[in-house]
Design a protein that fits this description.
By secondary structure, this protein is an alpha/beta fold. The protein is built from 13 helices and 17 strands. Helices cover 28% and strands 24% of the residues. The strands form 2 sheets. Strands 2-3-4-5-6-7-8-9 form an 8-stranded parallel barrel, surrounded by 5 helices. A 6-stranded antiparallel barrel has the order 10-11-14-13-12-15.
Length: 374
């Protein structure tokens, strides 16, 4: 039989999370962000759950081809734009919209020979200081693009650095608004955090004064996959988000420890009293973070307990004190939803590993079998 570990992708959770993002975004259209192979879930696996979006946003041409191969005929946006001139040929063939964030990309468009003008999203660096034109250069970039016969409609874009925290979006919004107030074109501003925390409807729902952030297109990513963009200030449950991925494995052995006995490499966990521990068929080679310490939460048969000792390549050990009936074959939920409906947020596990849910999703190992559930 195959090793007893399985990741499950929950199609209905994806639909529900998308619906929640759409409600928070008021009347804006929604890009479903599926970069990084849909945050580790697999583009083909999430497509059915996210096909209710108005478009798909991603990074590379291979991912765009995969979305088209699934039958999607709506908008697809390349979030980092093209990387060389010949990429524009595929943009024309696949009917891709693409971001323009630097002079070199405008130069490529000027040199591109095409009979079909392209839709572009001109990006401003309003304070993130990664991609985009500086505010004082934004209008001149827009003027260059607008003069090109290779360019059709120009949409306006920026990205918030602090939508998930106390600083918020007001400062960057002021910069963006000052430089674009009289420019035509749709606006695309909000990631998951900005959509949930700063769109007018979301602010009112959280009992906060509206910032009246207006975005014609929103770009939810992590929220679609059931992780809170502003954890730990808010949990996924606070926002009504549901886990889109469950990682579960089974107990393959049980050890009875006497007081003072250790378990695992380094003997860094010592039992204070006699106890039972379950050995679980999951380790860091499966994508479970090696750095997770003793006390990281797990669900055994849907009951919350903890890991003990070090995570090894293929196994972890868990405390069975709270689940005396558990034994070989018992299901251990590492993150996601257990069979009894209990939920262990990926954000909580990630916090124990001193990282974020994004990394755990993207780090699921290829050796872990994956199934898609309705």
């Amino acid at each position: 039989m195959p090793r007893p570990i399985l990741a499950t992708i929950h199609t209905q959770a994806l639909r529900d999370n998308l619906s929640l993002a759409r409600c928070a975004a008021d009347d804006a259209r929604v890009w479903a962000v599926v970069k990084a192979n849909a945050y580790g879930h697999g583009i083909e696996r999430v497509f059915e759950g996210l096909r209710g979006a108005d478009g798909f946003a991603l990074l590379d041409l291979n991912e765009a081809q995969r979305v088209r191969d699934l039958g999607w005929r709506g908008p697809i946006l390349l979030l980092e734009g093209v990387f060389e001139l010949r990429d524009l040929e595929l943009c024309s063939r696949l009917d891709l919209w693409h971001t323009v964030h630097c002079d070199a990309q405008i130069d490529m468009l000027a040199a591109h020979k095409t009979n079909v003008a392209q839709r572009v999203f001109l990006k401003m660096n309003s304070g993130m200081n990664r991609l985009g034109f500086a505010p004082e250069r934004y209008r001149s970039a827009w003027t260059r693009l607008n003069a090109l016969p290779q360019v059709d409609e120009i949409s306006l874009m920026t990205h918030f650095s602090d939508a998930d925290g106390a600083k918020g979006v007001a400062e960057q919004m002021a910069v963006f608004a000052a430089m674009t107030h009289d420019l035509p074109g749709e606006r695309s501003l909000s990631n998951s955090a900005a959509t949930l925390r700063h769109m007018a409807h979301a602010d009112q729902a959280m009992g906060q004064p509206s910032t009246k952030l207006v975005s014609d297109w929103v770009r939810p990513g992590i929220a679609l996959y059931g992780s809170a963009p502003d954890f730990p200030e808010h949990s996924a449950a606070d926002w009504g988000l549901q886990p889109s991925m469950t990682l579960a494995a089974k107990i393959i052995a049980v050890q009875a420890l006497s007081a003072g006995a250790s378990v695992g490499y380094g003997s860094n966990f010592l039992a204070q009293d006699a106890m039972r521990v379950g050995v679980v068929a999951c380790g860091y080679a499966d994508g479970y973070p090696r750095i997770c310490p003793t006390g990281t939460p797990v669900l055994v048969d849907g009951t919350r307990t903890r890991t003990v000792g070090r995570v090894s390549m293929d196994m972890i050990t868990v405390d069975l004190t709270a689940v005396p009936q558990a034994g070989p074959g018992s299901v251990v939920t590492l993150w996601g939803t257990a069979a009894n409906g209990a939920v262990l947020s990926i954000d909580e596990v990630a916090a124990c590993a001193q990282t974020v849910g994004y990394e755990l999703m993207c780090g699921l190992a290829s050796r872990v079998p994956v199934e898609v559930a309705a």
